Fold this sequence. Notes:
With 124 residues, the chain is an alpha+beta fold. The protein has helices spanning 2-18, 108-112, and strands at 25-30, 41-45, 48-53, 58-62, 66-74, 77-78, 82-86, 91-98, 119-123. The strands form two sheets. Strands 2, 3, 5, 6 and 7 form a five-stranded antiparallel beta sheet that branches. The longest helix is centred in the N-terminal third of the chain and has 17 residues, at 2-18. The protein is globular.
Amino acid sequence: MNRYIIVIALFSMKEKYMNLNSNPKIIISRTSQYVNKLRSYKVYINNKVVGKIKDGEELTLEVTPGKHSIYLEIDWCKSNNIMFDSMQNEITQFNCGSNIKGSKILFTCFYLFSKNKWVYLQKS
């Protein structure tokens, strides 16, 4: 009986200490907005598509430690490119959404031709 308790205790300690050396994570939160409500943004890390984020969604991604770049894309429009460093066990958070809100909806045609102004991405 005591052997089983010791094995269970050792296993739970292993799980606890394994989490101490986990890879860094990125959390991206997208605001819920009328513009692009039914569309997803592609998430690029180091110029590779790693996922999609929907309206009002939060996306968690695991990355390797080191320097990375991140940006979002929808059709021909891209967000700004953000460079960041990630370290072991670190969580980096970003917010994203459309720059078209409020009275800017009246000027949607202008934003269609400004491919880098449609979507924003910012580090929290």
